[in-house]
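Tokens in:
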């Protein structure tokens, strides 16, 4: 189903150089410093992925959002409802629905990833359709029941050097503890994500604060106690192998509150009286605090702004968050980040990795920021732009100003474990084609190009995340 020259230029000279560059890195181990794979898959050596629908459809909002956009109810895709209402429980029927509509993914990144997964991982060389749905389901079910297709076995087969999960600040990391105790040598590390306790507008903010207090052993009745609990959990995450924190915000606004203001806002939040303005100012202050903590403990700070979460209220109320209804918004970085960067951006002990869903900010703001501040690095094309065209736009708009070594290589950023090799393969192919374009235009020589490819494939990510 896949051309060996996919994603390479049609120009023969450029294509030939791209082939050679890609061949240099195609089999390098995968470095995955940011993602959302569930660690429980690996904590139990006997764990399986379940059914084909469990693996490829139900948890993957890239897949379900496309099907939903064509009027297919999420209930029909086996997505559990919050109210316990009826959903399709026959995963063979869920799979048939997917196969009958596989044509919807033609020309999309999801289609490319799915074809790679089915072919390279499971040996399926025909596109899914209504006629072969049952046969493919049986084939996949047989594979998924075999020991060599269990999560740990595929982790090793995929040559994953390190895989980061994303975990709430209040998470006791029980699955990571079990992984360590098992003696398995796969490197899977947590990432510290405090969104649930720094976003005062979260529906369950108080419950999250209580959970943070329990796991840290600190009674959180003041802002000082809250800060101490966050620092204690960061130290615990670092002890468990974490190398980074992750922060998802609507805007990257930063700014400091005075100690008295921070305490007053926190007390209003504890009393359930915090305003929307309180929430904005508190998050801006906490980003400053997290930068300070990163300088002190060495954890890399990732900032993912610009997604208006759960835009579709009906889907959120019926199925919960992360169901494909998050929509990008315009994002401003230069002024919003100025307070943080003026205080901490010149300190090389801080690594602040910036992501965007607003591509208009690449050349105007992000590349100049990364090309100046020692603390700033640019993350790869993210989410809706983790695509061949998104990657090409990134290379064209970022590299001339920021420079290659102020970027961070590739993050697969996925819950869909079996798509990880496919996503890295797309990045390596598009990278090879971009570097080949520099060679044919006489901008770099072949020796420099080879070095750039190694960096793009793994070196930049290792260095940015201190791996």
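Residues out:
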């Amino acid at each position: 189903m896949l051309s060996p020259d996919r994603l390479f230029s049609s120009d023969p000279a450029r294509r030939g150089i791209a082939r050679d560059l890609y061949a240099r890195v195609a089999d390098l181990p995968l470095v995955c410093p940011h993602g959302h794979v569930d660690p429980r898959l690996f904590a139990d050596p006997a764990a399986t992925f379940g059914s084909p629908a469990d693996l490829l459809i139900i948890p993957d909002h890239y897949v379900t959002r496309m099907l939903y956009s064509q009027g297919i109810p999420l209930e029909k895709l086996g997505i559990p409802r919050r109210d316990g209402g009826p959903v399709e429980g026959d995963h063979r029927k869920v799979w048939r629905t997917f196969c009958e509509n596989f044509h919807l993914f033609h020309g999309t990144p999801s289609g490319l990833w799915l074809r790679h997964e089915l072919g390279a991982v499971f040996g399926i060389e025909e596109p899914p359709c209504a006629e072969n749905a049952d046969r493919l389901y049986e084939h996949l079910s047989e594979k998924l029941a075999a020991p060599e297709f269990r999560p740990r076995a595929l982790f090793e087969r995929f040559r994953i050097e390190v895989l980061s999960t994303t975990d709430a600040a209040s998470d006791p990391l029980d699955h990571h503890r079990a992984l360590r105790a098992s003696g398995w040598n796969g490197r899977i590390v947590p990432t510290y994500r405090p969104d649930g306790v720094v976003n005062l507008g979260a529906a369950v903010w108080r419950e999250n604060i209580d959970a943070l207090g329990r796991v840290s052993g600190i009674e959180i009745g003041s802002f000082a106690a809250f800060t101490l609990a966050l620092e204690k959990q960061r130290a615990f995450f670092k002890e468990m192998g974490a190398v980074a924190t992750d922060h998802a915000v609507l805007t990257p606004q930063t700014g400091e509150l005075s100690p008295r203001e921070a305490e007053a806002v926190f007390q209003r939040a504890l009393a359930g009286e915090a305003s929307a303005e309180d929430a904005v100012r508190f998050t801006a202050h906490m980003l400053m605090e997290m930068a300070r903590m990163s300088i002190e403990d060495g954890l890399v700070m990732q900032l993912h702004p610009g997604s208006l979460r759960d835009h579709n209220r009906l889907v959120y109320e019926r199925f919960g968050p992360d169901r494909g209804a998050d929509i990008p918004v315009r994002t401003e970085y230069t002024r919003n980040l100025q307070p943080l960067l003026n205080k901490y951006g010149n300190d090389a002990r801080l690594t602040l990795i910036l992501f965007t869903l607003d591509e208009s900010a690449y050349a105007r703001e992000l590349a100049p920021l990364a090309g100046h501040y020692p603390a700033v690095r640019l993350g790869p094309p993210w989410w809706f732009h983790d695509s061949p065209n998104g990657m090409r736009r990134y290379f064209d708009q970022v590299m001339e100003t920021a420079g290659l070594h102020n970027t961070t290589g590739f993050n697969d950023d996925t819950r869909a474990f079996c798509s990880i090799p496919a996503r890295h393969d797309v990045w390596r192919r598009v990278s090879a084609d971009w570097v080949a374009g520099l060679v044919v235009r006489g901008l770099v020589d072949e020796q420099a190009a080879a070095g750039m490819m190694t960096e793009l494939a793994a070196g930049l990510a290792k260095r940015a995340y201190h791996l």
